[in-house]
Model the fold of this input.
Amino acid sequence: MFAKRAVRTFSAAAVMGAQVLVCLLTLGSHAAASSKYQEFSDFTTPLPLKKGDVLVLGIVGGWERWDRERIVRTIALDVRGKHYEGVYAETVENHRMELARELLHKALDTNRDGTLDANEKASARLILYGQSLGGSAAVRYARELGEQGIPVLLLVCIDSYGLGASLVPPNVSAALNIYQRDHLFIKGEADFAAEDPSRTRILGNHRFYYRGKGVDDLGVQDYAEEPWIRRVFIGSHLKIEYDTRVRKMVRDAVFNAIPTDRRTGGAAASIPASVSP
Ligand SMILES: [Ca+2]
Done:
């Protein structure tokens, strides 16, 4: 009797804790924007893509807006800022993955017949990355694409959080995992492994440590502008996305995975053997 009541009390506390965390993740995530919810028309990539074009797709975490300039959006804007011909970058909210599916379908349907044939699927040049719940959504989406015969050049996860998202499917050529385990509840996936090591190269499982580290250790000003309540309760899970080393690592991995014929006019794709902090 007492045990049952204790379990009920603990469950209620856990649910309440989760609700508080969701509120905290949402707090301060509203940027000035044209619409309340993300819509398909928010994408700017010309559709369909031309053969050989590259789509870089970032999935944002929590209930964060797709256009808020935190780590995922910032990296997408960096890619756009390069103005590589035939390289496009978009961000999507992790609970609006239907928009990502529609985007990719229209991007790959080069003959505009409404379906994707084997050649259209196989010719995809997609780079996927995500943070927090966006990281686990990226892994699940990569697996979904694999079941359809669509390859992924690179998968990058930043403090990925969510169930069953550490086994990288074989349609992914390379994967990079960056995480922390310092937060009391939100601990990033630690051990990405390739389902088929002959097809997927794990570029690294890089752990970062934040306990006792403040703004000065991170080297970016934006973190201090986060609401204090988020800094207190999200802590290390928030610090990792403001960490300049992490941003550089993700950015380098994404840029290195863009095939050289879309970067410098070369021919062969280039993916680094490993990425160092
Ligand atoms: Ca087609």
User: Anything to note?
Assistant: Residues 6-16, 28-33, 265-270 have pLDDT under 50 and may be disordered. The beta strands are 54-60, 87-93, 126-131, 152-158, 167-168, 172-180, 193-194, 201-208. Residues 109, 111, 113, 115-117, 120 surround calcium ion (CB under 6 Å). DSSP finds nine helices and eight strands in the chain.
